[in-house]
Amino acid sequence: MDDFIAQMPKAELHLHLEGSVEPETLHELDPATPLEEYRALYRYADFEAFLKAFAVIGKRLRTPDDYALVTRRLLERLAAQNVRYAEIIVSAGVILWKGHEFAPIFDAIGEAAAGSPVEVRWILDAIRQFGAEPAMRVAKLAAERVGRGVVAFGIGGSEARGPAAWFTEVFAFAREAGLHLTAHAGESEGPESIRAALALGAERIGHGIAAARDQALMGHLRERDIPLEICITSNLVTGVVARLEDHPVRRLFDAGVPIVLNTDDPAMFGCTLAGEYRLAAERFGFNEAELRGIAENGFRYGWP
To answer: Which of the residues 12, 22, 187, 229 is marked catalytic?
Structure first.
């Protein structure tokens, strides 16, 4: 199985650039801070603690060169796993919140990705709890870069503190600008959060595991061919799934819901894409044909 997974071409559609930064890389960028202090950032008691850690790590990225370095390191790791295509989420909302200029950072990560064997596209992400006005600023940055590798606009962060209804106008603007639409939903909140994201026009749902609690919603996702970006290890580490055996990935798949496997924040959760496929095989009984189909979904539902 390990050889099969290693040799299988893979794509990743739910992957945060900032969440791919290893503690060792942070220490390299800031040697004055002890490595163990950075490693301590990567331990979280619950989902809200994870969000705080994500923000802290984002603050440590200060210059375009910092972003270029973490981009190169990420793409090296993806290429080593035979990942051929990746849509990388950039937390533009956090970059603006830090008061940094976005254009030179985007140029730097684009240049860093240019020589990689991995085909890369970018998704600009707004932070739900920051509100609609900051999200519109992110959507405008994305719209300005359609044709320059940015394929989509999305919202992440706290579903509870940033309800989808806030972003109706933002999503309408992004759609008119030619962007695809995605949203984190049904991760820490219930099926109603997924329905609210779909009402905005989301074409893919980040996580979406709460759909397993709603038969009608699963039927809707299946019939409309709307995929869920499943991140098994992420859900376990953040505590939104209490035990590995409780994860609904198998139920969703057996119900005919389209799924794609992803790492979400691989450095923060200590996982790899190859490891997610191995986990699906060993703990949820996915056979080679099923895994191949899921891997093909990564290319089918991408926005190259």
So the answer is: 187
pLDDT over 90 percentage in the chain: 94
**Residue 288: other Cβ atoms inside 10 A:** 12
Query: Which residues are CB-neighbours of 62 under 8 A, at least 6 positions away?
Result: 29, 100
Tokens of 3: 């050889």
Identify whether the C-beta of residue 127 lies closer than 8 Å to the C-beta of residue 94: yes
**What pLDDT score was predicted for residue 197?**
98
177/172 Cα distance (integer angstroms):
9
Q: Which two tokens stand for residue 61?
A: 């990225």
* 87 carries an active-site annotation: no
Over the stretch 80-104, which tens digit does the pLDDT of each residue have?
A: 999 999 999 999 999 999 999 999 9
Q: Answer whether 86's CB lies under 8 Å from 122's CB.
A: no
| CA dihedral sign, ordered 33, 34, 38, 41 | negative
The string of pLDDT tens digits covering residues 189-212 is 999 999 999 999 999 999 999 999
What is the per-residue pLDDT for 45?
Answer: 84
Count of the separate structural domains present in the chain: 1
What does pTM read for this prediction?
A: 0.96
Per-residue model confidence as pLDDT tens digits over 94-139: 999 999 999 999 999 999 999 899 999 999 999 999 999 999 999 9
Q: Which residues pair with 123 in a beta bridge?
A: 89, 152
Domain that holds residue 203: 2-300
Indicate which CATH number applies to the domain containing 199: 3.20.20.140
